[in-house]
Write a structure and sequence with these properties.
Elements lengths: L3 E9 L9 E8 L7 E6 L1 H4 L5 E6 H7 L4 E3 L2 E6 L3 E8 L2 E8 H23 L1
Antiparallel strand pairs: 1-2, 1-8, 2-3, 3-4, 5-6, 6-7, 7-8
Amino acid sequence: MTAVQERARAHVVTDTAGERPAVPVSLSYDPDLDPGAVHLTLPASVTGADDSGDWVFTRDLLERGLTAPVANGPVSIWPCGRAQAVVELHSATGVSLVQFDSRALIRFLGRTYAAVAAARAGRLR
């Protein structure tokens, strides 16, 4: 099957006044490795660690979090207004809140389902 890679920009939510910086994030999905999981990779500037943070959670959690608050272990996702979603990530170094345009997450999810459908269609031939 074809792995899906999507680059997006997100905003780190902080308690400081002023403009929140946009940061590059990577969303990926590889149905050959784990058909139910998505990966979210954040730069070190967001995680506070020496390297980037790679978070793995279910594709279903991401999808459900676009319409209602959901949580599973250290990952919580909820809609923020009509056009944004927040991903809250808990780690040993603290909590990161990252706000996305929902369109970017919806586009990524659509690509993951299309990849699975295309692979299934190829196997039926």
